[in-house]
Hints:
- The protein has 326 residues and is of the alpha/beta class.
- Helix content is 43%, strand content 14%.
- An eight-stranded parallel β-sheet has the order 3-4-5-6-7-8-9-10, covered by helices on one side.
- The protein is globular and about 50 Å long.
Amino acid sequence: xxxxxxxxxxxxxxxxxxxxxxxxxxxxxxxxxxxxxxxxxxxxxxxxxxxxxxxxxxxxxxxxxxxxxxxxxxxxxxxxxxxxxxxxxxxxxxxxxxxxxxxxxxxxxxxxxxxxxxxxxxxxxxxxxxxxxxxxxxxxxxxxxxxxxxxxxxxxxxxxxxxxxxxxxxxxxxxxxxxxxxxxxxxxxxxxxxxxxxxxxxxxxxxxxxxxxxxxxxxxxxxxxxxxxxxxxxxxxxxxxxxxxxxxxxxxxxxxxxxxxxxxxxxxxxxxxxxxxxxxxxxxxxxxxxxxxxxxxxxxxxxxxxxxxxxxxxxxxxxxxxxxxx
Length: 326
């Protein structure tokens, strides 16, 4: 376990983007029983960090992920109950212009959760399109911490320059940034290798959270160039990336065989070995069990070096989040 600002974070968390998202992940309310099983299985096995956002969920299901997490938390009575950490991200919507708008957003999230927020995060920086908006939103996060409405404050999709700016603004009010999450995987090394975020986070005492550690399924070994592919943007990504990433999948498969693990577990463990906290999603207990299998062991330096070498040589990488700043 690693200690954050007033929160304790596990080696791995669980992302809940899919819990309520019909368009990309095919969510249906009939899945709720299985998702409750995912939650219970994760907590029992020490995966006690659950990442959500107030924008998660499509259409009338907006906020569904937070509602489900609240329901599951209230219903859970087993081991590690006191270690459950709910992290939610507040969207930097264009109509959120004041510090109080962020306070109101957090209060709405807490109402959906039916509990307090452990870690509140800025979902994205507005630096790329409305830099004037961002200061007041960060002030809102500071207000939440100052009023004791949250235990810790974090950011998402920030690069090194904007991170240092936000760090100083919050530090001036005595607020520590506990976490930063970015898209990070063997197909998305950009935040660390090019922006240098891990080094800056280590310098500032910020824990780096890796979202999409399985690259929307591309790093599971499930999809093949000539096989059945998912629909929508995930299918587009598969068609774009799979033809050039076979050397990486072959290397991962060899390591998985030698380790008696799965390709997914190798991908997640790589993130852990790099000193980040991955938050892979899970829509079924089988997927959650596989994710949990990434814990309790570490890739060695030779394996990491080979994976790094091949990942750096790939002709195409994951598309970066449009809100990711420099």
